[in-house]
Amino acid sequence: MTKIVFKVDELLPKLVQVSQVVSQKNTIRILDYVRCSTAFDELTITASDNETWLSVSVKVNVEGGSDALFCIEASKLIATLRMLGGATVSLELDETRKIAKGDYGNGFFEMPYVDAEEFPMSVVNGELKEFTMPATRLRNLLQQPLFAVSADDLHPTMTCIRLDFENDKAVSCGTDGRILVRYTQNESNIGLGEDGINVPQKPANVISQLIAACGDDDQVNMGFNTTQFRVVAKSSFSLSTRLNTGRYPNYNAVIPQDNNLVVSIKKDELVGALRRVLPFGNAKTCAVTCIFSKDKLNLSARDVDYSTHATENVPCDYFGDEFKIGFNGNQLMEAVKNINTENGEIIIALKAPERAAVVMPHSQAFGCEYVSMVMPMMVD
């Protein structure tokens, strides 16, 4: 019988990582399991929802025979190991009964496992265009527009992050039709010509979280073709996913270029005011009225059904005529609070009450450009 000996506090974080791609409701029972394989005292764990595959590795000791290949239920194993703290576990595989017995000194547990042949693995169809990028730069590309991505499955393309690669830059975009974020960073070494892909929200979020654990100097290798996207971080993880092949909206065409009413305002002060005012507005519309006048922004929200009302003034730099516009307060707050700004100030550029507002940092980071757009709404 094969024994796999491991420390819980080394294996458990890896199991939790891969379980991010396991769906809560699988139509294929085997996808509730993780695929485990050993080679050279290393355990590789793979999870999938049949659209995305994530693999991570951890050092173990393999005793008593050949390398192992099996599938075991992810949620049950994670729940069990969480109860064992920093224990060392010897997991013995009984190939006759298809039972995995975990001995942790003071006791043991038993749970069934199944053959790994049933587990669907990712297959690369066609050649991938590949290049290398610092892990932190890929994380920026994925994370900056992630909050703006739609959750509406009726518009599957908008549930993705758009990545466009050009000879000297990489551009990412996310939108739900009400908010749009475009993030650009210079990338002189990509050299792919002009290519673009739609990365679904779930794998984009998983990649972003995994990269957060990488070092500042770590590199990731990326490859893609028309249907697949793969990211490999050496000695950390490997993720491949199917791409959405629909046509993404022309985001450059919808971002206003002529908004000439410019407001400079402190990010934290605006977010704080929105948080205080919004609870007094209509819970369904989340409407807030913004009145810009010399040196101040007046925010107000009202719910006539419950006779609640709140208003607050926020200092700002604005020297034009009085200007009134309405927004969904939650959408405006999301757009503002997700901006990274070195001096704490943001710019809001306006044109007319029925035109979208452009929100961006007061000063852009070197080699990068962050632009967000928020659609207005009618207010009384």
What can you tell me about this protein's structure?
The chain has helices at residues 8-18, 74-82, 135-143, 201-211, 251-254, 267-277, 329-337, and strands at 2-7, 33-39, 42-48, 52-59, 61-63, 69-73, 88-94, 99-103, 108-114, 129-134, 160-165, 169-175, 179-186, 195-200, 219-224, 228-233, 237-242, 261-266, 287-293, 296-303, 308-317, 323-328, 345-350, 357-361, 368-374. With 380 residues, the chain is of the alpha+beta class. Helices cover 17% and strands 42% of the residues. The radius of gyration is 25 Å and the shape is elongated. Helix 1 runs antiparallel to helix 2 (74-82) and helix 6 (267-277) packs antiparallel against helix 7 (329-337). The strands form 2 sheets. Strands 5-1-7-8-9-6-2-3-4-17-16-15-10 form a 13-stranded antiparallel sheet. The longest helix is centred in the N-terminal third of the chain and has 11 residues, at 8-18. A hairpin with a 3-residue loop joins strand 3 and strand 4 (52-59). The chain folds into 3 domains: 2-118, Roll (DNA Polymerase III, Chain A, domain 2); 129-161 and 188-248, DNA Polymerase III, Chain A, domain 2 (Roll); 255-374, Roll (DNA Polymerase III, Chain A, domain 2). The chain starts with a strand and ends in a 6-residue tail after the last strand.
CATH class of the largest domain: Alpha Beta
Number of domains: 3
Strand neighbour order, sheet with most strands: 5-1-7-8-9-6-2-3-4-17-16-15-10
For this structure, the quaternary state is single chain
CATH superfamily of the largest domain: DNA Polymerase III, subunit A, domain 2
